[in-house]
């Protein structure tokens, strides 16, 4: 939690001025009962009207100055807390961006969203209140006690006993509720997660008539959060009645003792009123302090969660520009090489890739095929270094991928993933993610290769057509074509299409492959596909089965010597199997 203090550094002045002005306000608050006592003991007792009026204006003046101090304190506290929260949120966002996929997979998106939003808001709230009230309340409590001593020592002892008793009660209740606040935030994570899942999957939920189950699931989770909140609320609600009972007992004793002192002539009536006022100020401040501590507890729990994210170190380090040696590209150096690569996802029991070795020469097209879950996506995700393998090495242009800067990998590799992700904005804005300096001509060229010309031309405004969030105003196939175009705008040396033509019809898929093949230069292309037709023409095909490389070679080679490939092929072209059988039988008869 202390680690978050750095984000307040820039607001040092505000963080000092806010409590300082609050303390000034307290001084005026503490003087009010003294002035009231004077009004009673001098003005009223001696029937001195002009004195009463004079003191009345003094009270108004004190209230005015107190109010100005309070406003100023509020201003500085708000400035510091809002600025702090903005910096913290930005730092978290930047940090999350720097984490590797391994950490992101482990933490999960939902908790990251709650921590980035609700948790940061709670910390901001806690800081704002803390800056204003954390010093004010104890200062009023202690100040009231000191003022009581200046009035009457015998009565002041009641304050000395009452205050610690009240403190113990308040803090005991707080200690019980602190751990519960963390549970409440975790419950909130769960509700956020379910909300997101249900809202993004609403079409599937309706298609499968799962509304009732979804509502029930949400209700269960929400009920649990409510139960926790109620429990914490009840404990916190105990504070007021308990503190009021204690303070009222103290007030009764105070009035009893003070009455005796007045009768003995040691005290005046106005001073009794002043002591009573101080007792009231104490209870008001203690209740404020109690709710402040509740807020601070909540925000400390949230601050811990925020600090937890900031403390996560990326398991992947990148070399920087200075450390990076210039590429020494030589002829006949493979564009991509896997050397006995084994990879297991964090938390997964079994490896998703086992001892994979192959190489792809510059300009080659590499097809990757295999059953579902055989490791195709995992394999290609190691090329742009989304993950690091536990064993073996991945090389690009003869250099280990760990020797590249993050930027240089980004420039070299263009990847189009299975799920098309587009962002709110124009088509042009989205495609310029590939290269922000790309001209409209470059963009149209990429669109043409990606077979998206008709799509874009059919939209009002063409490149200026506005996409909604996640590109939801486009069809699946249209989105896929645009994501392919976005990768092509970058003109990458290595292009990876991870089953990204799955929503395209056969003719478009074929035209896309032909257009990519016809590109100038030596772009190495990886085509991941479930369809043999999609990779048949590739220079080399990698066949994956259960994370292992079952075979590699051209289509013809694999048809001769790779059983897994033959199985896939004949399952997709059963008539070929039949023809094969007929040929074989005919040969046999001859
Ligand atoms: N983020 C992840 N965390 C843990 N395990 C994962 C993760 N992603 C994939 N896996 C596991 O790794 C294995 C390979 O998955 P991968 O996505 O690479 O398969 P694939 O061949 O691309 O499948 P498909 O054709 O269905 O997309 C699977 O068993 C899968 O459950």
Automatic annotation (TrEMBL):
<dbReference type="InterPro" id="IPR003593">
    <property type="entry name" value="AAA+_ATPase"/>
</dbReference>
<keyword id="KW-0813">Transport</keyword>
<dbReference type="InterPro" id="IPR017871">
    <property type="entry name" value="ABC_transporter-like_CS"/>
</dbReference>
<keyword id="KW-0472">Membrane</keyword>
<feature type="domain" description="ABC transmembrane type-1">
    <location>
        <begin position="16"/>
        <end position="298"/>
    </location>
</feature>
<keyword id="KW-0812">Transmembrane</keyword>
<dbReference type="InterPro" id="IPR036640">
    <property type="entry name" value="ABC1_TM_sf"/>
</dbReference>
<feature type="domain" description="ABC transporter">
    <location>
        <begin position="336"/>
        <end position="571"/>
    </location>
</feature>
<feature type="transmembrane region" description="Helical">
    <location>
        <begin position="157"/>
        <end position="181"/>
    </location>
</feature>
<keyword id="KW-0547">Nucleotide-binding</keyword>
<feature type="transmembrane region" description="Helical">
    <location>
        <begin position="275"/>
        <end position="296"/>
    </location>
</feature>
<dbReference type="InterPro" id="IPR011527">
    <property type="entry name" value="ABC1_TM_dom"/>
</dbReference>
<dbReference type="InterPro" id="IPR039421">
    <property type="entry name" value="Type_1_exporter"/>
</dbReference>
<keyword id="KW-1133">Transmembrane helix</keyword>
<dbReference type="GO" id="GO:0015421">
    <property type="term" value="F:ABC-type oligopeptide transporter activity"/>
</dbReference>
<protein>
    <submittedName>
        <fullName>ABC transporter ATP-binding protein</fullName>
    </submittedName>
</protein>
<dbReference type="InterPro" id="IPR027417">
    <property type="entry name" value="P-loop_NTPase"/>
</dbReference>
<feature type="transmembrane region" description="Helical">
    <location>
        <begin position="231"/>
        <end position="255"/>
    </location>
</feature>
<feature type="transmembrane region" description="Helical">
    <location>
        <begin position="52"/>
        <end position="77"/>
    </location>
</feature>
<keyword id="KW-0067">ATP-binding</keyword>
<dbReference type="GO" id="GO:0016887">
    <property type="term" value="F:ATP hydrolysis activity"/>
</dbReference>
<keyword id="KW-1003">Cell membrane</keyword>
<dbReference type="InterPro" id="IPR003439">
    <property type="entry name" value="ABC_transporter-like_ATP-bd"/>
</dbReference>
<feature type="transmembrane region" description="Helical">
    <location>
        <begin position="20"/>
        <end position="40"/>
    </location>
</feature>
<dbReference type="Pfam" id="PF00664">
    <property type="entry name" value="ABC_membrane"/>
</dbReference>
<dbReference type="GO" id="GO:0005886">
    <property type="term" value="C:plasma membrane"/>
</dbReference>
<dbReference type="Pfam" id="PF00005">
    <property type="entry name" value="ABC_tran"/>
</dbReference>
<dbReference type="GO" id="GO:0005524">
    <property type="term" value="F:ATP binding"/>
</dbReference>
